[in-house]
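Our working data are protein records whose layout never changes between entries. An example says more than a description, so a record of this kind follows.
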Amino acid sequence: MELKVKQIPIEQPEVLEIRCHKVTDDVQEIISFVKSRQGQLSARKDGRDIEIPVIDIFYAESVDNRVFIYTAKDSYEVRVKLYELEDMLKARSFIRVQKGMLLNLMKIKSIKPALSGRYGALLRNGEEIVISRKYVAELKYALMKGEARTGGEGR
């Protein structure tokens, strides 16, 4: 695949165009990445493609090699791996709280200690999420500093 970048005058609108023979998984990953940088993710529900604003996502979870994002009332499948989604969302208040889960810090209502060093997070939609003890230090740091560490403990 050839890659071209062309600078244009400031008065012209920026456009990203992808020309391909077929929309493969690789092309779909590129599309998802670009949309995530614009504040939305491409997701799928009931065979339909849907754009989900990142601000609406409560958490993302990997289940049976498939990744799902959850909003206040619905769940959607995304076509990227969890680690790719983590990279896309790390600048948007998402941190890993379990091996297979990312959590939007902005959707937490309250946090309390649980058994065996774990914590429980009550989300604004009433759901409860378990934070694995491996990720508690990163969660505390993110809450104190207002951001997640990159490459820190719990990875």
User: Anything to note?
Assistant: The first strand starts at residue 40 and ends at 45. The helical segments are 25-37, 82-89, 133-145. Residues 149-155 have pLDDT under 50 and may be disordered. The CA atoms of residues 24 and 124 lie 36 Å apart.
